[in-house]
Amino acid sequence: MADPVVIHTDGGASGNPGPGGYGAILQWGGHRKEFTAGYRMTTNNRMELLAVIVALEALKRDGTECWVVSDSKYVIDSVDKGWVFNWEKKGFKGKKNPDLWQRFLKVYRRHNVRFDWVKGHAGNPMNERADHLAVSAYKKKGLLIDDGYEASL
């Protein structure tokens, strides 16, 4: 079995809601790729989830073994405890971020994903890097529009 792709993610928003961004780092073998983007109005949870989505969408081969390391209990517990699958069965009625959860489930099912939680802001170098990418993204000019969030306002 090949080594898994290790994915470190973080997301954040200043004000929650407010300007927000995500950071994702993919590592496999000696390769590393970073993804980041900032949005003018969004939430922390949307950015945490979007970081995972963008990273999984970047994988080129279906069935890739991947290990997502995140400080987001929202994302990890929703998957590991099966909540998101129940939300899906009920059409995400009354749940936040259905647009992103539907996008997540589509790409999640293409790969073999496992999650591990890491405490945020606790000195984990890759979590700190992902956090830096997220914060730097929303501090830039020319932020993107989070259509899924702004349409719900």
Describe the structure.
The chain is α/β, with parallel strands linked by helices and 153 residues long. The protein has one domain (5-150): Ribonuclease H-like superfamily/Ribonuclease H (Nucleotidyltransferase, domain 5, 2-Layer Sandwich), CATH 3.30.420. 38% of the residues lie in helices and 29% in strands. The chain has 6 helices and 5 strands; from the N terminus they run E-E-E-H-E-H-H-H-E-H-H. The chain has helices at residues 44-57, 73-80, 83-89, 98-108, 125-138, 147-150; strands spanning 5-13, 18-28, 31-42, 65-70, 112-117. A 5-stranded mixed beta sheet has the order 3-2-1-4-5. Helix 1 (44-57) runs parallel beside helix 4 (98-108). The longest helix has 14 residues, at 44-57. The protein starts with a strand and ends with a helix. The model has no long low-confidence stretch (mean pLDDT 95).
Low-confidence stretches: none
What string, H for helix and E for strand, traces the elements in order? EEEHEHHHEHH
Number of strand segments: 5
Cα Rg: 15 Å
Q: Find the CATH topology.
A: Nucleotidyltransferase, domain 5
What's the shape? globular
Beta-strand proportion? 25-35%
Briefly note the structural class of the backbone: alpha/beta
Q: Biggest sheet, in brief?
A: 5 strands, mixed
CATH homology group:
Ribonuclease H-like superfamily/Ribonuclease H
How much helix is in the residues? Answer: 25-40%
Tally of alpha and pi helices: 6
